[in-house]
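Reply to dn_fold:

You asked what the input looked like. This is it:
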Amino acid sequence: MKVWIPHRAGPALLGELPPGVTVELLEDPARLPSSPAGVRFWVPPFLSAGPAATPLLASLPDLAVVQLLSAGADAWVGRLPDGVTLCDARGVHDTGTAEWVVTAILSVLRGFGPMARAQARREWAYDEVAPTDELAGKRVLIVGAGSIGAAVQARLAPFEVTFTLVARTPRPAEGVHGVDELPALLPEADVVVLLLPLTEQTRGLVDEKFLAAMPDGALLVNAARGPVARTSALVAELASGRLRAALDVTDPEPLPADHPLWELPNVLLTPHVAGSVRGLLPRAYRLVGEQVRRFVAGEPLVNRVVDGY
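and this is what came back:
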């Protein structure tokens, strides 16, 4: 069977594969490395679902598994032919995304944005920024209590914060609340971290009511997907100065140069880099190798995407 992967470094990172497995490099869906026949396992490039990927799916007669390198599967749900299994990369991005969340929170609370701008002006801005806010004592609401949420919680725990966790389905035994409880939970949160996948249920979850329920001065951190937040509501609330935000994802994305979010001093923007770290490919292809071995052995695959999750 053939396995198509998008990175030249991939073969060396997969580990030992069963006999009869051939790994080929597919960097460009318009330039196939060989005949599509026999391709059972395809690893697309990051965030690649679109006009080029859809025709390719239809041309792979033997395809059985699409293994994503992203934690989110929203771009692929509903695109695969019947009988093809979709798997995400849950667990691969925990470390990088959790580090970004902690960095973003601290950067905003400690005023690194204004200080960086003052540095560019060569101004000693102590009187402008001090005293800064602090993380100690903050109430952190994590919306998306999956593996990345657990990684964020573990890294924030030493900062003397308190946590409230929210997931699609409540888990009372673990102290995890359901999404329907957000209206009562948001007023008690100093920091709200978005880590949930993009589905039809979560699209636009952060709307006018959601933002209005957050207390004055609260910080919204979006490391999920841009459309989880309604951009018009986000711009309106942030422009008032009542809330702060750290955004690694936006809607649209990339953010146009003339978009008002660029101009808001209470917004930290990064270009969807939370999971883009040097250790990503080794972790990702370790998962791919495990999945290929499972598939060949007839064992159940992990991280199967069901109902968009």
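DSSP finds ten helices and twelve strands in the chain.
Hope that clears it up.
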